[in-house]
Amino acid sequence: MKLMTSRLLIRPIAHDDSESVFAYRKNKEVNKYQGWIPESLPEVTEFINKTAREPDLPETWFQLVIIENASGRLMGDIGLHFFGIRNEQVEIGCTLHQDFQGKGFATEALESIITFLFTELNKHRIIASIDPENLSVIRLLERTGFQKEAHFRKSLFLNDQWVDDVIFAMLRTDWKNSSNF
Asked: How deeply is 9 buried, as exposed, middle or buried, from its count of CB atoms within 10 A (0-12, 13-18, 19+)?
């Protein structure tokens, strides 16, 4: 699986990506809303070893990396969690190196992944679980057509504290009727 946009290549994560992923994922301040901040390079290698080797396997996480076409630089990653009784739902998460934030790359990558999930994999629903203080990601989700569905108070134990969790979702019917794509 490879997706191309005008500025990006999105492909499955590989062992050769460990150092690049570690370089931006280890930053605790930039990634303070993330559930996974690796402490070492071997931890990233272990993470890559545990991810599914192909998309759309029920109850697995499939990890992709985002590469800038112009420079060939790995700029971020997208995680896809396939779940549900009929495997028709996907949870999505995105992490972007701070040097590439605020330039439309996350929007471009997310729109490409959403189109793939609804057209190629025929998914019914895509969700995202977000810390309500992560305003930049909330704006990203709203910009791409996600709708807020729920706000759970102190429902996640993350980074040694209880935090709120906001769920955003997009149905295939929302996407079909959207002018975003």
From this structure: middle
Burial class (CB in 10 A: 0-12, 13-18, 19+), 50: exposed
The string of pLDDT tens digits covering residues 100-122 is 999 999 999 999 999 999 999 99
Task: List Cβ neighbours of 171 (8 Å cut-off, separation of 6 or more).
Answer: 124, 125
Report residue 155 CA to chain centroid gap: 20
**For 45-70, what is the mean pLDDT?**
96
Residue from 120, 126, 107 nearest 55 by CA: 120
pLDDT of residue 180: 63
Say how far residue 173 (Cα) sits from the centre of its chain.
21
H helices, E strands: number in the chain: 5, 8
What is the number of other CB atoms lying within 10 angstroms of the CB of residue 151? 12
